[in-house]
Amino acid sequence: MTLQPLVILYVVIVFSFIVTSVFMFKPKGDERVHIIFFWLAVALSVLVTFINATALAPDMRDKIIAAWAGLLFSAVGIIVRMIAGKTNSIANVLVMVSTVYGVAGYFILN
For residue 48, what is the enclosing H or E element? Predict the structure, then answer.
């Protein structure tokens, strides 16, 4: 059994996600570190969603829409972060949920 390249990419993304999540919730850290890792988590969720949605066949419109819908969590997380103006656990969790949704969706939808 050989590993497919997308599965290897997802393993790398999950590892990056774990590291990013740890630093997003690191207590009493520099606010700049929290901001950097928050936006890195957003980028990871967009990357996972993009890979997930484009890996599907064009005739699977429902599944493609379901894949792109995962970005709604990140969008709400960004809005919450902007309204709060500082590190916000709810925003961090929403972005994390978006990434988990994308990774789980790849294995469920494909």
Answer: helix 31-54
Q: Taking a C-beta distance cutoff of 8 angstroms, is the pair 91, 36 a contact?
A: no
**C-beta atoms surrounding 78 within 10 Å:** 16
| C-alpha dihedral (72, 73, 75, 77), degrees to nearest 10 | 170
53: tokens are: 């949605």
Q: What is the pTM of this model?
A: 0.84
pLDDT in tens, 79-96: 999 998 887 889 999 999
Amino acid at position 44, single letter: L
Cα(first)–Cα(last) distance of the chain, in Å?
A: 18
Dist. CA 16–CA 89, nearest whole Å: 19
